[in-house]
Amino acid sequence: xxxxxxxxxxxxxxxxxxLVDDVxxxxxxxxxxxxxxxxxxxxxxxxxxxxxxxxxxxxxSSHMKKFEFHGWVLTMTDILEPLVALPVVNSALxxxxxxxxxxxxxxxxxxxxxxxxxxTWLKVGVKAGTIIFAVGxxxxxxxxxxxVKRSKLRDAIHGxxxxxxxxxxxxxxxxxxxxxxxxxxxxxGMMKQIGYTQQQLDGAQRNIAAEFVTEVS
Length: 217
Known about the structure:
Largest sheet: 2 strands, antiparallel
Number of helices: 6
Strand order of the largest sheet: 1-2
Low-confidence stretches: none
Structural class: mainly alpha
Strand content: 5-15%
């Protein structure tokens, strides 16, 4: 009866559940991105240290930088710092970190909602290593009028739009970052084969970082 005079409510409700599914997929994709990016940065870190060591050039501790968010850490040389210094990349990595930390049980819903605003009407849980979302709106009771239900659905749909856009944007940036990190691994592998100087090693990192900054700017 609540929808009798609001025939679009079922469509709005279906749209809301579509958005819930989208958000769930995007957040779990961010978890995967977090793992991939962390592994790639660790791999690059090892390779860079080995390559400097191979030419007997120690890396001063002051030249090593970290991106850290609630214990989720990426380590890199200062030359590669521009890879993560851009606000758009920093934001994407923060979303990765929050999703991963949520999946690992190291933060709760509140910290998740601090970063991904507009989704506080969702209930969050983790099952079998996957983040699960459920609708936290009470839409079933007969006491809810069609107008109230319409208002709740509109608010929920509107609130999900921007976070969904942000997460899709983060997914694109993360994909570009993964590709660039793989380029670094491949480039350094080639340099190992043909030989290199410190200047060439520094220059290769600087060029790759500059290319990435240009691509995402």
